[in-house]
Amino acid sequence: MMSDLLSRSDPAAALSAALARGGDFADLFAEEKTSTLIEIDSERVDKLAQGKRAGAGVRVVHDFRTAYSYTDDLSAGSLAECAAVASAAVKDGGAHPPIALRSPVAHQLPVIRGPESLSVRERIDLLFSADRAARAVDHRVKQVRLVYADTLRRIAVANSAGVYVTDLAQYLMLYIEVVAADENGMQVAHESWGGTRGLEIFDERSPEEVAVLAARRAVRNLTAAPAPAGVMTVVLAAEAGGTMVHEAVGHGLEADLAEQGLSIYADRIGERIASPIITVLDDATVPGRRGSFSVDDEGTAAQRTALVDRGVLKGYMYDLRLGMKMGRPSTGNGRRESYGHPPIVRMTNTMIAPGETAPEEILRSVDRGLYVRRMGGGEVNTVNGDFVFEVEDGCLIERGELGSAVRGATLT
Domain 11-223 maps to which CATH number in 3.90.1150.10, 3.90.1300.10, 3.30.2290.10, 3.30.70.100? Predict the structure, then answer.
């Protein structure tokens, strides 16, 4: 088993130093990332990078305000210096009692085949094989870009409430962009695949299969008719619905935006905000998903949170600081960009819970509409709820059945 990132330092002493001048709460976050990035463009390796980065940050919360200091050095002396810097931001507090940490609790997400089981050359060969698969779909495939990234992330979190946890997680991602063109124009399609798993993720969907999906979509859109304008019923496939709820709803349910009044859902807990058939969940416990983990970046256990229950807003996503401020427990949504950043409230895996109506029945209920298989880019105004999404893959619904492909559709 790997050693704890804080095992050679004294986290309790660092936390005590952080609260030496007062403060309501302090935590220490250590992180180590070992990563590989490979990018192939126009049938050649365009980028190859490998590296390891480690460091830690100390946070002090006083009157719900945050002071943060970080270092690239995990030694006890460097952490003590960080703690002193963060502590200096507290001007009027009293000394905190000595910190007593519980024994560290170790977590690890399961991985069957780590990326290190393949050499870098073998990982590059996987991408070239996917590139060939995309180009073999149709002679109109003109360009293929592939990005592969794997990251092994170790963290350790200790705080003034006595929490001391560690976690180890493997992240893997494959992204493919395909350009198809003919005498009538050009179309671009994207496909991605990944999660908190190892190379076994490609047993479920191989790089070649991911590439073929993107290539077929790009080629199909070359002959697709322009989408009709106007108001119509829209049916979203599961993947497209996930994108919609993440962007159009999820961000507005992050407590930092709601607390600042920058969300259309601010001060609306208990109100009906959606159809009774809609339940929205944020769930970090789904095995293998990109937003899944054992503990968040504040050491709170992963959990499944009902944000909207049968159309009624039940609550927001909280981290520890905003939970304390708003009188709510953390929902395990304290996320960090890296050890150089304090945690903020962000989603994990946000989704609409499955309903009871069969997909075929939903389609049969629509006389004329648009079926969206995949969303493209978009933007959301969380204050008023307005959104604009491009549709990357869609087709008409005609008399309850899927019809011809269309392109250029925009949802508002």
Answer: 3.30.2290.10
Contact present, 60 and 67 (Cβ < 8 Å): yes
Q: Convert the pLDDT of each residue in 235-260 to its tens digit.
A: 999 888 888 899 899 999 999 999 99
Q: Is 151 helix (H, G, I), strand (E, B) or coil?
A: strand
Residue 364's H or E segment, with its range, is helix 359-364
pLDDT higher than threshold 70 for residue 1: no
Model confidence, pTM: 0.93
CA 222 vs CA 125, 177, 230, 300: distances in Å: 29, 15, 22, 48
- List, in sequence order, every beta strand (DSSP E) within 98-232: 105-108, 141-159, 164-182, 185-195, 225-226
Residues 37-76 pLDDT 10s: 999 999 999 999 999 999 999 999 999 999 999 999 999 9
Residue ranges of domains in the chain: 11-223, 233-411
Q: At what angle do helices 11-18 and 76-87 cross, to 10 degrees?
A: 20
**Amino acid letter, residue 26:** A
In 280-384, DSSP assigns E strands to: 280-283, 304-309, 312-313, 334-335, 344-345, 350-352, 368-380
